[in-house]
Amino acid sequence: MSMTVSEGVPGLALAAIVDGGLVTVLVASAAVVGSIPLLVFALWPRGRAAAKVKAKPGSHYRQNELRTSFADRLVLPIVQDVTHYARRVTPQGVINASADQLAIAGLAGSRVLEAILSLKVLFSLAGGIGAFVGLASVTMVSRLAFAVGAGLVGFALPDMYVRRRASARRETISRSLPDVLDQLAVIIEAGLGFDAALSRIVQSSSGPLIDEFARALQSMRLGKSRSESLQKIAERTDVVEVRQFVGAIKQADSLGVPVARVVRTQADHMRQLKRLAAEEKAMRLPVKLTLPMVLCMLPSLFIVLIGPVVIRAMQSL
């Protein structure tokens, strides 16, 4: 009898651990720990260690391996395997959409794309397994449904972060565009050309839009035309105002219109659009304040005004 009780104790302890959600915590911790190599892979500068190894072809294999960094020896092979699997299970349309969103968010690069794809697969597996193991008290159908839902949420988490960052970057570019165009118009009217004015602004300012102008100048130095370089800015930023500005500059180049006049007109137009946007936000403010006032301020006001009257009426009875 004692042997039966002693043998049943480990089983009961294991069931208590599973029902208590400890396995879920362990799976979530494993997901967090597993994402660290992916982040290291996305941010770690590689290439120097490999160059050092190639510089000494006659050295021993062990010595060559020890010259490389920890990320190249241990983290990189794991991440490459996870990335290869992520590319296999991810549709090509999703990969292209993720690459476009990363470019809009200012995170363009093959390493960042591979890290995002790997995180999508890792989070989906961790979410599905964690939900399936953690919900041991419900039916199997419910566990499978929650596991699929958690896997889909985990798969979408990196995309949500990228979209949020892309939206913030678009908002920053849209706010800074009128000021940049004013500076560009003043510099062009002072006698510099369009390319020289862009170079001057890049040297004296900073921000996402300035970074895009710097990339455009670099591409023009490499032999691309101005229209093509500016069109790339419009595609990478995905901002309506930037597309309008790029279209105006391309039309001015094709028709022979002075660029200074076009830039000044675009600057005034963008400034007017910015003023109209501010007025629109101001007009929406009373509508947004209606619900908080009804739910928060009016009940307190009624209590302060009517409360003493009710108390006196109750005391007089």
List keywords for this structure.
317 residues, mainly alpha, Receptor-associated Protein, 13 helices, 86% helix, flat
Brief summary of the model shown:
The chain has 317 residues and is mainly alpha-helical. Helix content is 86%, strand content 0%. Helix 6 (92-104) crosses helix 7, helix 6 (92-104) crosses helix 8 (140-189) and helix 8 crosses helix 9.
Describe the protein's architecture and organization.
- The chain is an all-alpha fold and 317 residues long.
- Helix 6 crosses helix 7 and helix 8 packs across helix 13 (259-316).
- It folds into two domains: 20-166, no CATH class; 171-274, Up-down Bundle (Receptor-associated Protein).
- It has helices spanning 2-19, 22-43, 48-55, 61-67, 70-89, 92-104, 110-134, 140-189, 194-204, 208-221, 226-237, 240-255, 259-316.
